[in-house]
Amino acid sequence: MTKQITDDLAQALWETLLLHSTKGRLRYGDITAIACEFGLTTKAVTRVWGKGIRSMGDRVAAVVKAG
After folding, report:
1. Of residues 20, 27, 15, 9, the one with CA closest to residue 52
2. 39-65 pLDDT tens trace
3. In whole angstroms, what is the distance from residue 4 CA to residue 40 CA?
4. Which H/E stretch holds residue 30?
5. What is the DSSP letter of 59?
6. What's the rounded Cα separation, in Å, for the pair 17 and 48?
7. Phi and psi (nearest 5°) for 22?
């Protein structure tokens, strides 16, 4: 059974990822650690990270809604 990521969860996940990032990069092991913290797969965390980075472009804010 898979866990659906809600908009609130995606936002919390994005904010946590941003706190761990430096110049838009995550350290080795950060995605795995954050996935364990949120009870998600690394693939789900990677998907939210990628979606956030793509939606940011040159802007300061990102859109990471689950839908």
Report:
1. 15
2. 999 999 999 999 888 887 766 666 677
3. 10
4. helix 30-38
5. S
6. 9
7. -130, 115
Extract the tokens encoding 15.
Answer: 């904010």
Give me the residue label for tokens 């839908």: 67
Q: Where are the domains of the chain?
A: 7-56
Kindly report the number of other CB atoms within 10 A of residue 52's CB atom: 21
pTM summary value: 0.80
- Phi and psi at residue 16, to the nearest 5°: -65, -40
pLDDT at residue 24, rounded to an integer: 81
Residue with structure tokens 């797969």?
41
pLDDT tens digits along 2-22: 668 898 999 999 999 999 998
Amino acid at 54: R
